[in-house]
Amino acid sequence: MIDFHSHILPGIDDGSRNVKMSLGMIEELSRQGVDTICATSHFYVTQRTPEHYLERRQEAYELLEPVLPDNAPRILLGAEVLYFPGISRMEALPSLCLEGTDVLLLEMPFSAWQEYWIREVCDLASSGEFTVLLAHIERYYTQQPKKVWDQLLDLDVLMQSNADYFLQPDSIFRFRGGHKALKMLKEHRIHLLGTDTHNLTSRPPRMAEARETIRQALGQHVLERIDRLGEELIG
Questions:
Q1: Rounded CA gap, 124 and 127, in Å?
Q2: Which of 47, 80, 95, 103 is most buried, judging by how many CB atoms fall within 10 Å of its CB?
Q3: 172 pLDDT higher than 70
C-alpha cells in the first residue's frame, strides 16, 4: 500500500516538527498497512531554489534515516510542487519528481484556473518527461468546469485524493466528501490516494479507514486497481 502524499520529514515545512513526531507518523502509517511512504514536502519557488530545497530535504531525511526501525515502510523522497507561471520551463523540475520516477506531484491554486495555467499543465503532461499527478484534487475540483478535467484526463494526468475526502461529509476544506469521492473513484476521476498527513492530531493519517470505506462501497477490486497503478509508477 502506497501513500502518495505525506509531510513526514522533520522540520522542513508545516508538517512534522521533529524526528519524534516523524517516527510517530511513520509508525501509525505502518500500523495501517502502508509499506511505501512518499515524503512530499512543500516546494514553493518563491521561498527556495530547487537546489536549496533538495539540500534541506536531504538534511531532514538524514536526521530521520538513522533512527528508523528495521521494519519501517520504504520512504521515497519527492516534493509537493506548487504551480507557478513558467513552471514548464524550469530546468531543475525533474529533480523534484518522486525519486526514481518521473512522477511530479503538482499542487494547483485553490481558485478558478487561468487558461495559461491549464495550458502549462497540459504541456508538462504531453512533454514525455513527466507523469503529472495533481495533489488533493478535491480542493479545487468544483472550481473548474468539467471540460478542464476531461482535457487533463485525456492527456493521462493522474489525480490524487486525500484519504480524508472519503471519510468526512464536510472536511476541513469545506468540500463535500464521501459519496462524491466514491463516485469520482468509480468513474476513474481519482486514481491514487495519499494521507497528506502533517501530524498525529489535527491532520493524522487515515488511510486504513478510507480504504475500508472504498472496499465496502466499491469492492476490493478497486483497491487492487489503485495499488496496481501505484506499483507501476514507482517500480
A1: 5
A2: 80
A3: no
Residues 38-91: tens digit of each pLDDT: 999 999 999 999 999 999 999 999 999 999 999 999 999 999 999 999 999 999
Q: Determine contact, residues 109/117, Cβ cutoff 8 Å.
A: yes
Which residues pair with residue 81 across a beta bridge? 43, 106
Count: domains in the chain: 1
> What pLDDT was estimated at residue 173?
42
C-alpha R_g of the chain: 17
Query: Which CATH number goes with the domain that contains 166?
Result: 3.20.20.140
* Structural domain boundaries, residue 72: 2-234
- DSSP SS3 for 106: strand
Q: Please, are residues 198 and 16 in contact by the beta-carbon 8 Å criterion?
A: yes
Nearest to 37 by CA among 214, 199, 195: 195
